[in-house]
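Crash report, auto-generated. Payload:
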Amino acid sequence: VAQKRKPERTNVVIIGAGASGATAAKVLTERGLRVVALERGPWRKRESFGGDELANVNRYNLWPDPILNPRTYRVSANKETKIEMFCPVPQMVGGGTVHWQGWLPRFTENDFKLRTIVGELAGTTLVDWPISYADLEPYYTNVEWAFGVSGAGGVNKYESSRSKEYPCPPLPTTRYGQKFHEGCRKLGYNSFPTPMAALSRPYNGRPVTVQSAFAQQHGDPTGTRSSALSVFVPDALKTGRYDLRPDCYVHEITLDEHDRCQSAVYRDADGDFIEQEADVFILGCGAIESARLLLLSRSSRFPHGLANGSDLVGRNATFHEYSAAVGVFEDPIYAWAGGGYVAASSYQFYEHDEKRGFVGGCHIASAGVGIPLPINWSLPGRPMWGAQARQIDRDYYNHSFAIGMVLHDMPQHENRVELDDKIKDAWGLPVARITNKIHENDLKMGRWVIDRNAEILDAAGAKKTYRVYPERVTGNCSHQHGTTRMGNDPGTSVLNKWCQAHEVENLFVVDGGSFPTATGANPTLTIMANAWRVADYIADHYQPARKPR
Amino acid sequence: MTAPQAGSGAAGSFFNAHQRATIEAAMARIIPTDDQPGAREAGTIEFLDRYLSGLEFIYAKPDGSGFEKLEGKRAEAWEQRIEILRAKYIEGVRELDSRSQAQFGVEFVLLTSGQQDHILTGMERPSLQIEALVEPAPAGARSELVEPALQQTSAEIELDFFPLLALHTRQGFYADPIYGGNKNRAGWKLIGFEGPESLAETHAGRFTTLPFFAKEQIDWKGGK
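Recovered output after restart:
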């Protein structure tokens, strides 16, 4: 197929250069391995980003364009399938970390053994993780110190033990952070500064983060926020062993005669098909796209997709859901300051408590009410037009903020990612079809937590509150997990505890697809810590394969 | 690219004079003027007319020095999208006029504000998506469009004419002035957003919101 010269075989191919792929690249290249990274999207430099809500949020400057990269969604197998931008993530070097504001809380010890703690939950595939908090702790520290995460260890009283303080103190206090803290204090709830991928002091030669209003869902033109793009990609490049190829879209992973991965076949920016061979293959495309690539890679050995003898690739998909209670206050809040997400958090409702009547819990935090403008956000119940709508914008925009939740949705066998049988993307490949039905436990958790959030707003002095309960999982967090869950039993998991495919020795998946459960916290710190752990393992055990014949 | 009944043909313009006046009048009801400027004074029609004119005004350059030139698959996707949006507007203007003729015997632009509101309400009602927004969300209900950007489930081209017009009016009112609307920062002044002087300020890292942070810092380690 190749019209160009076939590139030289390399040690490791990493597909994707986002949170997980760039972390793995940094670690492997620093340990001396040669890495070819195949990223389907562009390699944008910080100069190409700006404070433009219209372009970034409405016109697909950062989001995937649904005309080129659609997805489909249905509630269940017997319901209608619709084209929907379900759980989009920027497809470019840096991935989701390009436009995040970077809330980086750690998971807790109990997250890794929730099944043991709560027992069986009907209709779910709740399991323990094959790894523990202790396995990840050193890697949490590694990522926090590489990024210069701003936070305060020990303030979150539900936090599990940490070996090292955060490298940077908390960011300055916002008014919405202050109100949240005040409300929590009045109710006797613990709160803490949200750990963030931003610098509160100069760090590793990088200046303090600029507190623009354009942060969450915007790229960072100043390069002062911490991301895969601003930290891990440059780290990997410094080694001289990172061959990062943007605009290279992998269509298939092929097998050799020993049923090991042989090559990644990709289409480059010119539209030419290229075959890249390597000893080790790592997927870091995000849980939806990694599952899709495995399902696209069919062979006689794996007729239903690579490493999918168990029929579990794509299943047990979890996505979180962002929902919030909104409070309106007399005094100005300016919830757009710092982009609306320089926040305060609480784990008061994070750990499981059977008295609440549902399993699990979640992270809550204060947040803004625009991105940053009210183009794409409005007060719940605001009419779409007319004098009243205008009045609401004017009266409420500077006087309200949200307390959001990260819904810990339960894993279910039928909630899955598959290949759509009708819709193809602009490159002719079947798109990901998401089937997702919210579990009763998720609904109960959502109602309970949103009610608590509204009470915190009341305690902070809100003159009015609005409660938005999650009704279905829409993928609005851009968080995705579970589609290649790790576990000790090949019958109930796709990957082993090293995120290595049970069925294919030289294949690893390092994105959120490996998470057996969603947990109730923002996943990316754990995704990066876990990718670091797996990359260390790969480097420890790497042996150059036999020479190509 | 040619649209059916394409507009004036002027650079940066799509609508003909009648279409432009009709949409401008409708926008003026969506964000009406009171003691402060509304959609009309903010130039939201200019914003929309430019948007529909082709591929020249889709993305401002991030430093505000002009607009990006689109190429390849991206350009193809935008051609397709603009074509779909144009058709919705052409049909939408026809619908506004035919309803106005049927109910009041004249075109939409000639109606009083009250009559225009009546017609727009009629346009809004048939859409189920909109119903959810008009009524205050009942406890437990989450309307589809409350937080479209957080949900990312509704793309512009899937919207009916009226919600599309309402969205574009809002975009034109609050988006950066470089796109032709939000004249004199009318939208930002209305809500009290102390935004940057220009895209260049944000791009260069000079735009800071620190003056709008809290006056006092929380002493996290101090326990209170």
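Post-recovery validation: Chain A touches chain B through 88 residues (CB under 8 Å).
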